[in-house]
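Quick one, tokens below. Sequence please?
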């Protein structure tokens, strides 16, 4: 290997299983793939899971770069930039890809069994570190235990950071911002206002440092009670719309009223037909599912904006898996949709109705609410549907893209989740598809996001959420 100034990154199998494009994400530095990693990729290529698809994509990329290359070319490293799928997105110069073309042996502690694949990769890393003492050799792995073992044997290791949307989940866009108490004194003189039907708009001057996003909420800290939604920011002007008040009984949505300002913001987004995508984040008991379902029923059954409600979620158990479930697709999904059933019970439990009337309502709702499995979403197109993706924190960015791109004309997609309750072993708060889509959609005029913080389920649930 040449060019000692460059770093040499040894990729663990889980990095390529997680992101095949990792091959192109190390800029000018070189990449090394051991025979053990190739063996593990070969073992994981079968199946229809996301991991298997990623393995097959990795194998195709490696095959593309290695085709027509001689053994001498492989020994001296293969240029990565010539096979980048998106040359315009490639860095100015990518490094080389090296393979284990000869045995690389190093002494490992006797307590580490030599037959384990992870230990073979550690052995390869230590051999490369010894072979190139002037070069920064780093093992890149998403396996925490692998990083711990790597540090214990003296090999530098790092997590794969390129899949992180943010450095810290606390930096995630919340969807709202407090206005300082002197906001109107500062901007009131140059502010214009007008009405369009029942809607009230304001226009104000903003400077180039304005960091407001479309459909971001502005909440006043003083007693004026001015709550507005940013509709656009361009050419030094910001247009705000006074927020509709869903806290009163006469403005209820399917019998549900907002219990706090956060829920009021959420209902403004959910009931706005101009907003095609809404994401609601929040801890347990903040009302995410209830608000989404009430808005869906109101706009499907009363206003006829949508012709059907579709609910789905990632089927990851909290405890032991209960195994295979009998029945049709909808019957198999029913045990996973307890949140839907619980909230439907709240929405249909009106006093004064007979059992027959309640049963008729349930039958009507069952015809308009469909429960779908994510496994059968690929290739479908949903027209004029209100789609609710529950427990979206357990989706990868690729799965999130697959689901959201199913939306056809006149369809609204609502993502619900709590990034502090991730059940998938392969995702974190900064790599989940929910964080990814909130960050990527925040600048789009037809999307909106709100992070709900105030629990409304019960005083017991709120205390448990805060103290356990």
């Amino acid at each position: 290997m040449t060019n000692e100034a460059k770093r040499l990154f040894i990729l663990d199998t889980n990095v390529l299983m997680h992101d095949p494009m990792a091959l192109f994400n190390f800029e000018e530095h070189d990449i090394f793939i051991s025979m053990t990693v190739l063996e593990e990729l070969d073992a994981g290529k079968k199946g229809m899971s996301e991991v298997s698809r990623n393995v097959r994509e990795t194998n195709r990329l490696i095959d593309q770069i290695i085709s027509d290359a001689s053994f001498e070319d492989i020994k001296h490293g293969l240029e990565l930039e010539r096979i980048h799928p998106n040359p315009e997105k490639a860095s100015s110069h990518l490094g080389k890809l090296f393979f284990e073309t000869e045995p690389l042996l190093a002494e490992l502690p006797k307590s580490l069994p030599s037959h384990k694949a992870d230990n073979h990769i550690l052995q390869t890393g230590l051999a490369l570190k010894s072979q190139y003492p002037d070069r920064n050799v780093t093992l890149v792995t998403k396996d925490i235990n692998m990083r711990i073992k790597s540090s214990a044997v003296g090999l530098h290791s790092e997590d794969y950071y390129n899949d992180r949307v943010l450095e810290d989940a606390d930096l995630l866009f919340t969807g709202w911002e407090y206005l300082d108490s002197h906001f109107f004194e500062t901007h009131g003189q140059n502010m214009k206002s007008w009405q369009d039907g029942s809607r009230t708009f304001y226009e104000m001057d903003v400077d180039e440092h304005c960091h407001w996003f479309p459909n971001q909420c502005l909440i006043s800290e003083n007693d004026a009670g001015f709550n507005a939604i940013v509709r656009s920011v361009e050419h030094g002007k910001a247009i705000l719309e006074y927020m509709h008040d869903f806290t009163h009984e006469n403005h209820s949505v399917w019998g549900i009223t907002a219990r706090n300002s956060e829920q009021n913001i959420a209902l403004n987004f959910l009931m706005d037909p101009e907003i095609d995508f809404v994401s609601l984040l929040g801890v347990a008991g903040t009302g995410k599912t209830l608000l989404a379902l009430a808005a869906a029923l109101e706009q499907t059954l009363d206003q006829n904006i949508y012709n059907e409600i579709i609910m789905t979620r990632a089927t990851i158990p909290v405890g032991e898996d209960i195994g295979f479930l009998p029945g049709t697709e909808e019957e198999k999904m029913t045990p996973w949709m307890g949140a839907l059933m619980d909230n439907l019970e709240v929405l249909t439990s009106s006093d004064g109705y007979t059992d027959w009337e309640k049963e008729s309502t349930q039958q009507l709702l069952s015809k308009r609410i469909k429960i779908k499995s994510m496994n059968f979403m690929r290739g479908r197109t949903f027209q004029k549907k209100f789609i609710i993706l529950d427990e979206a924190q357990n989706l990868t960015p690729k799965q999130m893209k697959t689901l959201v791109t199913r939306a056809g004309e006149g369809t609204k997609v609502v993502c619900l989740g709590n990034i502090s309750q991730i059940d998938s072993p392969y995702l974190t708060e900064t790599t989940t598809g929910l964080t990814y889509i909130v960050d990527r959609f925040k600048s789009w005029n037809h999307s909106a996001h709100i992070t709900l913080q105030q629990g409304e389920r019960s005083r017991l649930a709120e205390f448990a959420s805060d103290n356990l």
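The chain has a mean pLDDT of 84. Residues 8-158 form a domain with the Rossmann fold fold (CATH 3.40.50.1010).
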